[in-house]
């Protein structure tokens, strides 16, 4: 039997895992063996009795930096599977296309930074892919690792019951998703759009398509431009 999709997290806080990943669909999938989560405690690779993983930055300045020798030894202990990713505000912004590639592979190895980050030399020496979760700074890579794993795991076969739902979602087709409504039909004087009550599947599909396009154009001009370019409709 082949191993399930595996996320290996290198962290100084292994107790943060599975955390939210132990709940709901991801947690159920984990318990059913649809995917696997391993943690490596970077402190186990420290070289002193204080289990230090960080030291002061050369050149001065605030904070501490994770040592390359300690991080490298921790990385060496995890040969695979999957690409080695350092979660970093300096990385390439994560998008659904990269999530889909990662979910289609054997898994991933995630290095969680703390303090001011990781010594640049080990990032280079290990040819780490740097991935950013957004233009903001977290206190550590662990929350970012949890988000990235969650985004991948929900795409794995069997994790989300209705796989068709995944194809409708925001970014799946390069657009934001259309708005959703449920009962009650009238709430605080607000009615559900008439077309959704019509039972005309083709009209509903067209309405949702138009809503998805309008939301993308208004809310995310960057996503809209990419969508048009892919469709050969740039500038329309
Ligand atoms: C306090 S941050 C370090 C920030 C770094 N000094 C900078 O300004 O780019 C500590 C760790 O949190 C993680 N982190 C913070 N923000 C992140 C983001 N937007 N995406 C991914 N990881 C992030 C990284 O692993 C980073 O090494």
3D architecture notes:
By secondary structure, the chain is α/β, with parallel strands linked by helices. 34% of the residues lie in helices and 18% in strands. Helix 1 links the parallel strand 1 and strand 2 (35-41). The termini are far apart. Helix 3 (96-104) crosses helix 5. The chain folds into 2 domains: 5-153, SPOUT methyltransferase, trefoil knot domain (Alpha/beta knot); 170-230, Orthogonal Bundle (Trp Operon Repressor, Chain A), CATH 1.10.1270.20. The protein has a 5-stranded parallel sheet with strand order 2-1-6-5-7. The protein binds S-adenosylmethionine.
**Looking across the biggest beta sheet, what order are the strands in?**
2-1-6-5-7
What percentage of the residues does DSSP assign to strands (E)? 15-25%
User: Which ligands appear in the coordinates?
Assistant: S-adenosylmethionine
Order of helices and strands: EHEEEHEHEHEHHEEHH
Oligomer: single chain
CATH top-level class of the largest domain:
Alpha Beta
């Amino acid at each position: 039997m082949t191993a399930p999709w595996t996320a290996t997290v290198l962290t100084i806080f292994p107790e943060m895992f599975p955390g939210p990943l132990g709940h709901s669909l991801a947690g159920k999938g984990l318990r059913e063996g649809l995917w696997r989560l391993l943690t490596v405690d970077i402190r186990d690779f420290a070289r002193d009795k204080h289990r230090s993983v960080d030291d002061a930055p050369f050149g001065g300045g605030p904070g501490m930096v994770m040592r390359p020798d300690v991080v490298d030894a921790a990385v060496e202990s995890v040969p695979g599977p999957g690409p080695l990713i350092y979660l970093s505000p300096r990385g390439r912004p994560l998008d659904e296309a990269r999530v889909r590639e990662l979910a289609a592979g054997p898994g991933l190895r995630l290095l969680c930074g703390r303090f001011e980050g990781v010594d640049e030399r080990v990032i280079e020496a290990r040819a780490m892919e740097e991935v950013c979760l957004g233009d903001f700074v977290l206190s550590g890579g662990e929350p970012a690792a949890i988000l990235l794993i969650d985004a991948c795991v929900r795409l794995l076969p069997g994790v989300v019951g209705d796989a068709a739902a995944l194809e409708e979602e925001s970014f799946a087709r390069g657009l934001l998703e259309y708005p959703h409504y449920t009962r009650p039909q009238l709430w605080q004087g607000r009615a559900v759009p008439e077309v959704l009550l019509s039972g005309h599947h083709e009209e509903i599909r067209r309405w949702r398509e138009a809503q998805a396009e309008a939301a993308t154009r208004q809310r995310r001009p960057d996503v809209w431009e990419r969508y048009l370019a892919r469709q050969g409709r740039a500038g329309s």
